[in-house]
Amino acid sequence: MLYEWHSDQSSARLAAVPTRTPEDFDRHWADILSNPEVLARIIQLDGAAVGYLVSFIRDRRRWLGYWISREHWGCGLASAGVALFLNIETARPIHAAVAKHNRASRRVLEKAGFRVMEEGIHEVQGERIEELLCVLA
Ligand SMILES: CC(C)(COP(=O)(O)OP(=O)(O)OC[C@H]1O[C@@H](n2cnc3c(N)ncnc32)[C@H](O)[C@@H]1OP(=O)(O)O)[C@@H](O)C(=O)NCCC(=O)NCCS
Hints:
By secondary structure, the chain is an alpha+beta fold. The protein is 34% helix and 38% strand. Residues 11, 14-15, 66-68, 73-79, 96, 98, 102-105, 107-108 line the site of coenzyme A.
């Protein structure tokens, strides 16, 4: 299910994440979910999984990530999910990296109180992506 969401081309382009083979993807997520410092939640709509939220440590900082399956975009799920998740993930500061072109995600972060900390360039499979590093203090 997560692999299906991530292999959707529009979603992957928006999020600016590398595409992975199913095996790499499973390994990547097995590593994430076996880490006790990770907090992850599935978003359900009428009993069906439609997205996820995750918080994890990288480079000694805590980061937030989220994904909504494409057929459920634009219904407020990311905004509502992030707001609820930040009540259970109370570590601050918490960071988020967002591609500059990902306007929906920028808005989700803005509504949750994140502010832009710095701008950078992130290389994804040979493509240079402008990204914003955001923080909720
Ligand atoms: C980005 C993503 C999480 C947004 O999820 P969503 O559930 O559709 O978002 P919401 O419906 O909660 O709303 C997003 C906000 O962005 C706004 N928005 C949506 N598309 C927009 C666009 N192209 N330009 C500007 N604002 C936009 C919406 O109007 C809404 O703001 P509002 O509440 O002020 O009206 C979803 O597209 C996704 O999962 N994408 C692939 C993975 C990804 O990008 N993850 C985030 C990585 S940082």
